[in-house]
């Protein structure tokens, strides 16, 4: 089988959740062949659908997208669904990747094998090995290799040991097997065209669902022959009221209001919808309220109860209504309880960036200031963590802290992209790191100085003097980590420890903790942090749970699932 050199991954998901997501895809094909739209909508609710990436990942895993009316899961998905424990699922996916490119796995395993003259290595170090002249396989691009590394981490083949990669549980279990593999034999098998074991595997077709008793078509209708996509489950339709029930309801209404408007002699035909068939109801000839209705015109709009009526502002936008304090408190308790038990967290804490609070205060302040620059960015914690590793491994951070290197020297030594781990989105970080280092040396700021100042003034000072007005969220992240690390007092600085990221502000507004989601100035961000601090404290990492709440609920504006959500939300009260 030809070597596979592309290993597309799912977007917007940490490595710890990838296995669960593969299980979601496998279950979708367990009993049927879903349509393209059904699978797409299911993945979109989990925020892992990007039309440029996700289809490629599905095809890589063996899902056939050729017939969009009935997708085929493939052999890997069928085998995966049969397994019910994480260890077996990891081993299955490892065997899949081993089959796709055994040379790559053999080479990386050999490089990490400390018992056979190997050592733990970084991503860039491993990439240099697989792109060197000693590697007999086909060329792999750096983005594709990073995707492969992400897959290997997701299935516990490798794990972080400090700031480098070592064997994970699956890697250790398969180590002896990989040692016995011979590179020359792999190349011979490839030259002989030996087929993949996945291509020759036999897998049972999806089990058919239980037969459903069909009812005869009503007279006068035409059976549907064209393909119609299934719509989401809807609540049961209300039964059509009888004439007696209608009269009883009208009599009761007359007793309560006394307002009756006579219907014109010709009356109006009421219709009820059931499975797209119209059923005529006899001419009622009874009074109707709220004005005269003539045949062929729609009935007047139903008036919403005043307590949930939407308020319209410029442009026709609905201003979502506030929640009660009891609802807000209940929402906060639920977010905190969920967060405490949530294990698939994105990198977001100081420890995720290799920071220990046992270090001397000056070094600690520098490291927190540096990490806050990229930890609070929109690219996400996983990408920020990779950049931090690259900057640390290059020695750039230590040299900048002591004033021993300029950006030009660092670029000359390591290369501009290598400094940020090959991710060009973070190139603007380099001059900001130099600015932070220079500001700390010039201002001679310490934690003792911070403790003596008003928390709001600390945020403003850090924003202006340390971060040069370029990273408005960085001061909040620094304060939060200092509070959680025990360096600053939670009672004094807790109000400034809620990092008002866009995701946090959006979710806080939906759940009623703030009166706005916009942070157009530093004062706005300070106010938002204060508002959220009324509901979240150190026990829940302040608002970290709100920042990750998308992982649980998939919250969004104009949410189609608001009516069935267990949280009290402004989306519900908007009507």
Tell me what the structure shows.
- The chain is mainly α and 575 residues long.
- The protein has 2 domains: 178 residues, Orthogonal Bundle (Arc Repressor Mutant, subunit A), CATH 1.10.10; 247 residues, no CATH class.
- The chain is 46% helix and 3% strand.
- The protein is built from 27 helices and 6 strands.
- The strands form 3 sheets. It has a two-stranded antiparallel sheet with strand order 1-2.
- A hairpin with a 2-residue loop joins strand 3 and strand 4.
- It is flat and about 75 Å long.
- The two termini are 57 Å apart.
Task: Considering the chains and any ligands shown, give keywords for the structure.
575 residues, two-stranded antiparallel ribbon, 27 helices, single chain, two-stranded antiparallel sheet, flat
Question: Helices and strands in order, then pairings?
Answer:
Elements: H1 18-28, H2 36-45, H3 54-60, H4 74-82, H5 86-100, H6 102-112, H7 123-130, H8 142-154, E1 158-161, E2 164-167, H9 169-179, H10 183-192, H11 243-257, E3 271-274, E4 277-280, E5 311-312, E6 318-319, H12 325-341, H13 361-375, H14 381-393, H15 396-401, H16 407-414, H17 416-419, H18 429-443, H19 447-451, H20 455-466, H21 474-484, H22 490-493, H23 502-510, H24 522-533, H25 544-547, H26 550-553, H27 570-573
Antiparallel strand pairs: 1-2, 3-4, 5-6
Helix pairs in contact: 1-4, 5-6, 6-9, 13-18, 13-21, 20-21
Question: How widely separated are the two ends?
Answer: 57 Å
Tell me about the biggest sheet? 2 strands, antiparallel
Biggest sheet: strand arrangement? 1-2
Structural class: mainly alpha
- Poorly predicted spans: 207-235, 257-318
Assign an overall shape: flat
Mean pLDDT: 79
The helical percent reads 40-55%
Number of strands: 6
Strand content: under 5%
Rg, Å, rounded: 30 Å
Provide the domain count. 2
């Amino acid at each position: 089988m030809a070597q596979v050199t592309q290993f597309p991954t799912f977007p917007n998901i940490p490595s710890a959740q990838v296995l669960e997501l593969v299980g979601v895809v496998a279950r979708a094909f367990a009993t049927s062949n879903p349509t393209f739209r059904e699978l797409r909508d299911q993945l979109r609710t989990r925020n892992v659908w990007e039309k440029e990436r996700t289809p490629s990942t599905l095809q890589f895993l063996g899902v056939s997208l050729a017939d969009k009316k009935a997708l085929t899961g493939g052999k890997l998905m069928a085998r995966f669904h049969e397994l019910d424990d994480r260890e077996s699922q990891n081993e299955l996916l490892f065997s899949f990747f081993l089959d796709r490119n055994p040379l790559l796995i053999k080479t990386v395993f050999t490089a990490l094998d400390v018992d056979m003259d190997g050592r733990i290595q970084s991503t860039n170090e491993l990439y240099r090995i697989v792109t060197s002249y000693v590697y007999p396989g086909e060329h792999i691009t750096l983005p594709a290799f990073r995707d492969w590394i992400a897959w290997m981490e997701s299935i516990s083949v490798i794990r972080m040991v400090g700031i480098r990669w070592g064997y994970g549980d699956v890697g250790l279990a398969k180590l002896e097997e990989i040692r016995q593999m011979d590179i020359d034999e792999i190349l011979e098998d490839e030259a002989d065209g030996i087929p993949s074991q996945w291509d020759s595997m036999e897998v049972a077709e999806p089990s058919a669902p239980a037969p459903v008793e069909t009812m005869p078509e009503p007279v006068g209708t035409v059976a549907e022959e064209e393909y119609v996509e299934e719509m989401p489950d809807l609540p049961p339709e209300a039964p059509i009221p009888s004439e007696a029930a209608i009269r009883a309801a009208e009599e009761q209404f007359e007793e309560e209001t006394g307002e009756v408007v006579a219907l014109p002699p010709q009356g109006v035909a009421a219709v009820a919808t059931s499975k797209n068939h119209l059923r005529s109801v006899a001419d009622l000839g009874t009074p109707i309220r709220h004005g005269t209705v003539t045949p062929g015109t729609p009935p007047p709009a139903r008036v919403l109860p005043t307590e949930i009526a939407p308020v319209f502002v410029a442009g026709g936008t609905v201003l979502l209504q506030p929640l009660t304090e009891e609802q807000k408190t209940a929402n906060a308790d639920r977010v905190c309880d969920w967060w405490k038990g949530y294990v698939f967290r994105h990198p977001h804490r100081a420890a995720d960036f290799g920071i220990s609070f046992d270090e001397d205060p000056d070094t600690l302040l520098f490291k927190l200031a540096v990490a806050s620059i990229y930890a609070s960015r929109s690219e996400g914690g996983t990408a920020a963590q990779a950049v931090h590793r690259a900057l640390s491994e290059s020695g750039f951070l230590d040299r900048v802290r002591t004033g021993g290197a300029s950006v030009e020297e660092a670029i000359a030594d390591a290369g501009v992209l290598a400094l940020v781990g090959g991710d060009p989105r973070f190139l603007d970080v380099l001059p900001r790191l130099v600015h932070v280092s220079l500001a700390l040396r010039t201002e001679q700021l310490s934690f003792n100085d911070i403790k003596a100042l008003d928390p709001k003034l600390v945020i403003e000072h850090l924003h202006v003097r340390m971060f040069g007005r370029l990273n408005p969220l960085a001061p909040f992240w620094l304060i939060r980590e200092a509070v959680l690390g025990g360096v600053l007092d939670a009672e004094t600085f807790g109000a400034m420890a809620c990092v008002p990221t866009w995701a946090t502000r959006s979710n806080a507004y939906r759940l009623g903790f703030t009166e706005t989601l916009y942070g157009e100035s530093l004062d706005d961000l300070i106010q938002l942090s204060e508002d959220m601090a009324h509901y979240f404290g150190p026990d829940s990492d302040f608002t970290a749970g709100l920042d990750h709440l998308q992982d649980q609920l998939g919250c969004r504006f104009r949410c189609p699932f608001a009516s069935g959500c267990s949280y009290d939300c402004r989306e519900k009260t908007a009507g």
